[in-house]
Structures are given as structure tokens and as C-alpha cells.
Amino acid sequence: MSDQTIPQAAAPEVGPEGPPAPDGPTRRRLLGTAGATGLVLGAAGAAVGYVSAPAQATPLSSIGAGQVPFHVKHQPGITEGLQARGHLVAFDLAAGAGRKEAVALLRRWSETARRLMAGEAAPNDDTDVARDAGPSSLTITFGFGNSFFARTGLEKQRPVALDPLPDFSSDHLDKARSNGDLWVQIGANDALVAFHGLRAIQKDAGSAAKVRWQMNGFNRTPGATAHPMTARNLMGQMDGTRNPKPTESDFDQRIFVPASSKKDPAWMANGSYAVVRRIRMLLDDWEKLSLTAQEQVVGRRKANGAPLSGGDETTAMDLEKTDANGDLVVPLNAHARITRPDQNGGAAMLRRPFSYHDGIDVDGTPDAGLLFVCWQADPLRGFVTVQRKLDRGDALSKYIRHEASGLFAVPGGAAQGEYVGQALLEA
């Protein structure tokens, strides 16, 4: 967690050619236009099984109608607003699989992502899970782990920024649920649409790759509040205040790798680096604290996210303000103080997390917390800088535990007619 605001449904960048026109029938179009034929065939028979429906389809709700384009400058799933449901999954290439198999796999994945994000049926053996839904702002994002490059003979193309993350004092990492050759982030505002994407990606992996780990998360559904608000985490705190915003002049240089970068390989132009951490919240201990104690740990009011120094959520925090006893109003070890960019040499990350709950342990302890995902142009200057400072005395560290970790290079978006990672795999 950190003291930064998630942008609310920022519009994705679209190349000069604009969003692509769907070349296959959408799920909703199939339902509304099948007519008397009783069957509609999309490209390569993609829509087999989508049978006749009334001639006029019922309009989608605003949530179902939301659509994010696949062919964009930066991959989808980075600057868009938080989604209601998410799945994170890492794959390892199968024994004997290499660059050739990786090329075929990324081609399949990219085509599946393009179709599903447009509200179309999956190109191969669609499961019908999302049959009645629209795109629901589905995004599918792909990245490469450190180990991918040795597996594919592309060691010379591995970015220095993918060097393993250092160890931190709050780490209790499960290696089986960390890292991986390939990483996929799937998000949508409908749970069935998100699962449909996950299942299609898993099936497309075929014999080329096997799942290494998979995690499920959620956020508040867009529209559930009277107006857009910063998300709350499972501790009840507003989580994301002061996140970098796409409207800021230096946003791109802090979050995305520039085409002119001298330290990153050319294939990472317009890409970003994702740090993924499964952070368990020790909720039983946290909930024993009084409201005042919780606010002292975070440095912000629980009710509205305002800094303890006064104002509202967007008010600049006064780090020097003291109370009647001369004590700092925002404690030195408060999480919001330590994570401020101006306290970390300008280090910034675009945080786009999901909460998770994986059941209740036999002793009644909830296995719940945050699937932390942050984006930056340089993970050493972003995540590592901030986490090192948190390691030295963050009051919140007593109530959380980092249980899994990953770092992935996420290339720029695929142009029309291309697949994600093509500049790397066909270099």
C-alpha cells in the first residue's frame, strides 16, 4: 500500500488508426442477430454454439458495454481505472519449449485477448461462460519474467531492470507462488467475463506452457458509490491517494519506458515494469487497534482519507505540523509519510491492486489482503526505493506480510496485425 490515487477510468491511448473494427461477431451481436438460421459462424467458426435469439438484442448495461481497445500504444490494464474482478496468473514454458513455441503462444494469446476485449467469442472452443455479457471493460495484459530469456535463447535482450528484487525484512516469500517465465493480468467489471478470459488464456497455453501460480482478486464495482472514489482496502483504509495521474506532465516518463531509452532494450519502448506482491493483511491484529491508533499507523483519516494534518483527501500533507504537546501530527513512521514521492527522491509507482480473500485458516484467521501490482519505468527507482525505506520503520509493517513476489517486463501494446512481444521474439 502507498500514499498514491488510482486514476478513475482514464481513457486508454489509441493509435492514429483508431480502435480496430471487430472482424467477428460480438457475444451480444450473436445473441441479437442469429435470426432464423439457428447458428452463426464467426471467423474460423469462432461462434459455433451461439444459437438463435430475438432479432433485437437487449441493450447492455453501462457496465457490460464498457470496452477497452487491444491495439494501443501501452498495453491495456495499466492506466484504466480499477476493475471489479481480477486474475493474476504466471506460466512456465514446458520442458523442451523455446522461442518457437513462445512465438506461437503469444500469437494465440494476443488474438484471444483482442477478440474477448471486443466482446467476441474466443477463437478456439469458446466455453460460453460470458455468453450473455458484453466486454465489461475486460483487459488482458502480458509480461515476461527474468527466466523467460534463458528459456528462449534471448539472454542478450533481457533488461537490466529485470534483475531479481532484493530481499526485504517483511518478506516471507513462497517461491512456488513467485516469479515465472510469463505473466498475465486479467481484469473486468464482471466476474464471469474475467473468468472467461482466464480460462481462454489457460486453454490457449496448451502444451507450450503450464501454470506456475494463479491468484484471484476483487475491487468495489464501478458505480457502487454515489461518485468515483479512491478504493478502500480490506483494512478499511482508502488505498491509492496521490497515485500518479495520466494528466501529469511527467507521468509517462515515470511509468513507461521511452522509445529513446538507452538503458532498456528497444523492444521495451512504451512498455513498463510490473512488480507483483501478495501482501497478507494480519486483520485480527489490525482490527484490535482503536480508530485513532489505525489512523496514526497510516497517517490519514479512515473516514475520508484526509491527512492527519488537516483538510480533505487531496490536501497536501503538512509533515511539520505539531500538536499542543509539540508532537508531530503525522508520526515519523506513518505509512503515508514514508511513501510520499517527495520523501523518496521523487520515486513514484502507478498502483493498480486487487484485494483478495482465500478462505479462513483452521484457527479462524482470514487469509486475506492485497494483490499489489505497481507499474513504473524503472523498478529500482520506483518500488525498490520505496520498499527499502518502508523496511526501515514503517508502522504498517507490523500488520502485513509479503508472501509472494514477481517482477515482469511488460512490452508496449501491439500494433494492428502484430502480437504482444513481437519486437522481442522476432528481433
Automatic annotation (TrEMBL):
Task: Give yes or no: UniProt keyword Iron.
Answer: yes
Q: Where is this region: Disordered?
A: 1-26
**Which family is this protein grouped under?**
Belongs to the DyP-type peroxidase family.
Q: Which InterPro entries match?
A: Dimeric_a/b-barrel, Dyp_perox_C, Dyp_perox_N, Dyp_peroxidase, EfeB/EfeN, TAT_signal
Q: Please give the organism.
A: Streptomyces vulcanius
Tell me which UniProt keywords the record has, alphabetically. Answer: Heme, Iron, Lyase, Metal-binding, Oxidoreductase, Peroxidase, Signal
Free-text function comment from the UniProt entry:
Involved in the recovery of exogenous heme iron. Extracts iron from heme while preserving the protoporphyrin ring intact.
User: What does the record's cofactor remark say about binding?
Assistant: Binds 1 heme b (iron(II)-protoporphyrin IX) group non-covalently per subunit.
Q: What is this protein called?
A: Deferrochelatase
